[in-house]
UniProtKB/TrEMBL annotation:
InterPro entries: HTH_LacI, LacI/GalR-like_sensor, Lambda_DNA-bd_dom_sf, Peripla_BP_I
Native source species: Streptomyces hoynatensis
Protein name: LacI family DNA-binding transcriptional regulator
One example GO MF annotation: DNA-binding transcription factor activity
UniProt keyword annotations, A-Z: DNA-binding, Transcription, Transcription regulation
Gene3D superfamilies the record matches: 3.40.50.2300, lambda repressor-like DNA-binding domains
Domain HTH lacI-type positions: 6-60
Length: 344
């Protein structure tokens, strides 16, 4: 396999390790076990994976993608970056820098970044850390942000998604099926994407001539990765005197948690209650899940971010500093018309 084709995701899959582990081996980090390192190095040699040295301004033909944590969103974004970077002969490194990372840990990571000398950095983080942003700018490294939370500042180029339209699209789908009581499980309001999705939900109801009932909106905190939050939120909705016949959750992870809550209450999806998520993560496509969702184009966001970074690393100007990609409804098996007894 040519070294411009293989990706560290493919190496990680074959080695049975995380992408971050392969990235640490590629970058010569010491915090990898001997057997794991040797296994990964053998696969790198076998597939001919060697990021080629770039000479422009002394920087490597390497793009570094920074996450606060690894998860399904990170995997999708990274696939988009790699599939665009590899044919151009650009390697990909992955760093996980928790939001709370400060002091010696941050200095160690920045020192490693200086040694690697990437041609640019993609920040795929849950918000912009001003301190980290400032330190990266002082290094003179081109930066682009994959904006997962609806940050709209102008301090650096960013690629996001149409969150307001996504909320409206999900709600309109349920309205077209005949639902008139639609619950909304909202993410943390500190994240702008969640307020935008809720605004789209409310606008769809108003456009349909329906009242916007505050009690049909309950909060859950998926940012803390606690599945109990969305389970409890869904139970609160279904405990209302007039419970909803459909639920729209602000992200897929919350929708899957809410579906478990419905199962625990003896309610069937979609026969008794319809369910819609948002993101189109891999877990939603499994035969046992088949979640109707609004697709956030995470892979495309990664690809667009890489192309923008490539232009910046060449000294070119971007036509626009902010790009928002369209979301898309994906209908699967968790939505249906409301039960006859509740349809009006």
């Amino acid at each position: 396999m040519a070294h411009t084709k293989v990706t560290i995701t493919a190496i990680a899959r074959e080695a049975g390790v995380s992408v971050a582990t392969v990235s640490r081996v590629v970058n010569g980090r010491a915090d990898v076990g001997r057997q794991t390192r040797e296994r990964v190095q053998e696969l790198l040699r076998r597939h001919g994976y060697r990021p080629r040295a770039g000479t422009r301004r002394g920087r490597a033909a390497l793009v570094e993608v920074v996450f606060h944590q690894l998860g399904p969103h990170a995997g999708e974004i990274l696939r988009g970056v790699e599939r665009t970077a590899a044919p151009a002969g650009i390697g990909t490194a992955v760093s996980v820098v928790p939001y709370e990372t400060t002091g010696p840990d941050r200095r160690q990571w920045l020192a490693g970044l200086r040694r690697r000398a990437p041609s640019g950095v993609i920040l795929a983080t849950w918000g912009l850390d001003p301190a980290l942003h400032g330190e990266l700018r002082r290094l003179g490294v081109p930066l682009v942000m994959v904006d997962l939370v609806g940050w709209s500042g102008a301090e650096l180029p960013s690629v996001g998604a149409t969150n307001w339209a996504a909320g409206r699209t999900a709600t309109e789908h349920l309205l077209r099926l005949g639902h008139r009581r639609i619950g909304f499980i909202a993410g943390p309001p500190r994240l702008p994407c969640n307020t935008a999705r809720q605004a789209g939900y409310r606008e769809a109801l108003r456009t349909a001539g329906l009242p916007v009932e505050d009690r049909l909106t309950v909060g859950a905190d998926y940012a803390n990765a606690d599945p109990r939050s969305s389970l409890e939120a869904c139970r609160r909705l279904m405990a209302l005197p007039q419970p909803p016949t459909a639920v729209f959750a602000s992200c897929d992870e919350m929708a899957l948690g809410a579906r478990e809550a419905l199962r625990g209450l003896g309610l069937r999806v979609p026969q008794d209650v319809s369910m819609v998520g948002l993101d189109d993560l891999p877990a939603t496509r499994l035969p046992a899940t088949r979640l109707t969702t609004v697709r956030q184009p995470l892979r495309e966001m990664g690809a667009v971010a890489f192309r923008a970074l490539r232009r910046l690393s060449r000294g070119d100007r971007l036509d626009v500093p902010r790009v928002e990609l369209a979301t898309e409804l994906v209908v699967r098996s968790t939505t249906a018309p409301p039960p006859p007894a509740t349809a009006r």
